[in-house]
Design goal:
The chain has 189 residues and is an all-alpha fold. The chain folds into two domains: 106 residues, Orthogonal Bundle (Rna Polymerase Sigma Factor, Chain: A), CATH 1.10.1740.10; 81 residues, Winged helix-like DNA-binding domain superfamily/Winged helix DNA-binding domain (Arc Repressor Mutant, subunit A), CATH 1.10.10.10. It has eight helices and no strands. The protein is globular, with a radius of gyration of 19 Å. This is RNA polymerase sigma factor (Sigma-70 family).
């Protein structure tokens, strides 16, 4: 067995034992490869990135029940493909529902529009509030990555950190934001 495979298997076992750092290390090792692989199934970069982040969040969330594997790469790639296809299928069913809704000529009521707008405003407020709770370093890294669209290598150079550290900062910031928004969504509904 080669050194890379040994390392990823050790990290996999640590992840299953609840080691968050191991999950971050696996993310750092595989994020770029997973992104390139995911783009084969969807041209939507945002959908692919969401699927990757969901994959790692779910790995940690369900760590006690995930299977043992002797090929971490294959496991991650297969899970990512399934996540992307689920997200794409969900999007298609929403489009089909929307088209069907239009065919029935059912227009949302004024109240439904107002409620939807209030919900969007509240979600935007909660996101902005959650962003302010991030560290200055996390906010800067997110801005560099998603607003200015810098690569992880560029972010590492700008922030004077390693590439792995730049990925970890962004991963943890996104994880925090998702958790905050998840709490908001479960409370709101």
């Amino acid at each position: 067995m080669d050194q890379h495979k040994n390392r990823t298997l050790r990290l996999w076992r640590k992840l299953k034992d609840g080691d968050v750092e191991a999950m971050g290390d696996l993310y750092d090792i595989y994020a770029d490869e997973l992104f390139a692989y995911g783009m084969q199934f969807s041209a939507d970069k945002g959908l692919v990135m969401d699927a990757i982040h969901d994959l790692f969040l779910n790995l940690y969330k369900y760590r006690k029940t995930i299977a043992e594997t002797d090929n971490v790469t294959y496991y991650l790639f297969r899970c990512l493909k399934n996540n992307i296809l689920k997200k794409a299928t969900k999007g298609l069913s929403l489009v089909a529902y929307s088209q069907n809704h239009e065919l029935n000529h059912d227009e949302p009521s004024v109240e439904e529009h107002i409620c939807a707008k209030e919900f969007e405003n509240e979600r935007a407020y909660k996101l902005a509030k959650a962003i302010t709770r991030l560290s200055k370093k996390q906010r800067k890294a997110l801005s560099l990555r998603f607003t200015e669209e810098h690569s992880y290598e560029d972010i590492a150079a700008i922030m004077d950190v390693s590439v792995q550290t730049s990925r970890t900062i962004i991963y943890r910031a996104i994880k925090t934001l998702r958790k905050q928004l998840y709490l908001f969504m479960t409370f709101f509904f």
